[in-house]
């Protein structure tokens, strides 16, 4: 009998100790997120990077998988254009992008266009569009249909185009040089998209919408 009572006492002590340890342990987190689950808190979503729009691309142009390189396909000449997916942001600041001329350099226009511009014409010709051509002329401004005497561009040159959104002044650059565009204004920056037009087979360009460092230091040039 004493042996039985002794074993019962030990059993009760062990049970009590287990209960105390269980009570002291923190309760499980019922709403804990999985380690790899994305947050749905107040973090701002990352803006989608701009690129050429396959839905706003002439059928005679081909786009690279990342939608940054445009190439003239086929053997027949003719005007073919492509617009970017995102339009200019309507607020103060600078909107700017650059285009590297990879191959050919005849009949290339780099600029800004409305959504309504046909894809079988060149940017700068259609109303409300603006462009810098490889022949060294600016197109699309009210003062004159085109302004000649500007620097021509060739393969491996990098051409920049943008808008000072507060003043609506258009911006053109060639490599590391800012070109004179005083008094050249756009009508409505909020309705414009980056646009490139090509005329000859074999023409190829690559756009930089800000994923890489720009050739021209646009921020420094317009620092207040």
Describe the structure.
The protein has two helices and 14 strands. With 224 residues, it is mainly beta. It has one domain: Sandwich (Jelly Rolls), CATH 2.60.120.920. The strands form two sheets. Strands 1-4-13-6-7-8-9 form a seven-stranded antiparallel β-sheet, with no helix packed on it. Strand 8 and strand 9 form a beta hairpin. The chain is globular and about 45 Å long. The chain starts with a helix and ends with a helix.
Can you lay out the helices and strands and say which pair or pack?
Blueprint: H1 2-24, E1 52-57, E2 61-63, E3 69-72, E4 80-84, E5 94-103, E6 108-113, E7 130-133, E8 137-141, E9 144-147, E10 158-164, E11 169-174, E12 177-178, E13 193-198, E14 204-208, H2 218-221
Antiparallel strand pairs: 1-4, 2-3, 3-14, 4-13, 5-10, 5-14, 6-7, 6-13, 7-8, 8-9, 10-11, 11-12
CATH architecture: Sandwich
Number of helices: 2
Low-confidence stretches: 1-46
DSSP strand tally: 14
- DSSP helix fraction: 10-25%
The major pleated sheet works out as: 7 strands, antiparallel
| Count of discrete structural domains | 1
